[in-house]
Design brief:
The chain is mainly β and 369 residues long. It contains 1 helix and 27 strands. One of its GO terms (biological process) is tRNA wobble uridine modification.
Length: 369
């Protein structure tokens, strides 16, 4: 069956662990050893093959357990509305430890944080963020609660009130709901922790992208610790058709979304102050993502019109970037508009002569001009 998702974790500078899932509910975990010289090949070996169920797994996330080197936790999310956690070693078999319930629709995205540092505690905690078609984002906190021997004697029904408890190696862990984030008005397709700016330091910032054509940045308030939406950017155009994913830049100053129609949407924080943020839209590369079937020039030659089997008509024209400097005037060609987003592959296009010079006709597979 086809591969639906993939995730990876760098164990060391020369070794990585990779997990991939297929549409038939099988997850394979691989160990990848990188060569010391570029002329050599990577060594890949299969550590385990997990048969989940008949329903597809659509998202994965992999992390190392806190204070437990060599042991990893793998989160699986799919069409049964549950998050499944598996634990295993870098050289051994992965076993199921618990299931997390709460979402009421398909799980769309999962992402583990790095171990959390604070003044009160060491790196005993990691967080898992999940998003779903139920329009809700959930943050789960995985905590190291003690060594396995002492907890096996103390485990009671009351121990499970906050969340599932499981043993991995010599330690016991508990995972519970940290927060539930509600703000999007449609399916939340993507969630992602901000990358570390300083080595091994995890910023508490989550980027979410939704089919409601918005991306949001979530952070906990300093005084209360309550997670709130601090930034919201998006598109008003009907051509956007929602965002399928959102990603941080490595330095955390830019966020990029990609849409159903093959479009990119980029915002950059241009504020020089750490106390305030000003996210402005930036220029991005764009173009058709299928075979272009016809092109035509505007009668005056000021722009080019193209149609494609991606079911869109697009306008390309030159754009001058002056920015107040007459000597450094640049001219580039960009996609400026999509005047037609169709339901069928478009095969031909022609401009219509007349006043205004901005009318065209197109023909598509449904036999209507």
């Amino acid at each position: 069956k086809g591969v639906t998702c993939i995730t990876a974790y760098m164990v060391s500078e020369t070794e990585a662990m990779v997990a991939c899932a297929s549409s038939d509910g099988v997850v394979n975990v691989w160990d990848v050893s990188f060569p010391s010289q570029s002329s050599e090949e990577c060594k890949v070996s299969c550590l385990d093959s997990i048969v989940v169920d008949s329903k597809a797994i659509v998202t994965l996330s992999l992390a190392e357990l806190p204070q437990n080197p060599g042991r990893f936790v793998l989160a699986l999310g799919g069409l049964d509305n549950k998050i499944k956690l598996y634990c295993g070693e870098s050289t051994g078999k992965f076993t199921s430890v618990c299931e997390l319930k709460g979402h009421t629709d398909w799980i769309r995205s999962l992402d583990f944080s790095l171990p959390l540092h604070s003044a009160e505690e060491s790196t005993n905690n990691i967080m898992l963020v999940s998003s779903s078609q139920d329009k809700v984002i959930r943050i789960w906190k995985l905590v190291l609660v003690g060594d396995a021997g002492s907890w096996r004697r103390e485990i009671t029904l009351a121990s499970y009130i906050e969340g599932p408890v499981f043993v991995a190696g010599m330690f016991t862990y508990q995972i519970s709901v940290e927060s539930v984030l509600i703000g999007h008005e449609d399916w939340v397709y993507s969630v992602e922790w901000q990358p570390p700016v300083i080595d091994n330091h995890q910023p508490l910032s989550i980027l979410s992208a939704s089919m409601d054509k918005t991306m949001m940045i979530w952070r906990p308030e300093k005084n209360t610790g309550v997670w709130v939406n601090v930034v919201c950017v998006g598109e008003l155009s009907h051509c956007a058709l929602g965002f399928y994913g959102g990603h941080w830049s490595p330095d955390g100053t830019s966020i990029l979304a990609h849409g159903y129609g093959g479009s990119f949407h980029l915002w950059r924080n241009v504020s020089s102050s750490k106390e305030s943020e000003n996210w402005l839209m930036q220029k991005v590369p764009s173009g058709h993502f299928a075979a272009v079937t016809d092109i035509t020039w505007a009668r005056s030659g000021e722009y080019l019109l193209s149609v494609c089997q991606d079911q869109t008509t697009r306008v390309f024209s030159s754009w001058k970037n002056d920015e107040g400097n007459e000597e450094a005037e640049d001219e580039h060609w960009h996609e400026l508009a999509r005047p037609q987003v169709h339901g069928h592959d478009i095969n031909c296009v022609a401009m219509v002569q007349g006043k205004g010079n901005h009318r065209f006709v197109s023909g598509a597979e449904e036999k209507v001009v």
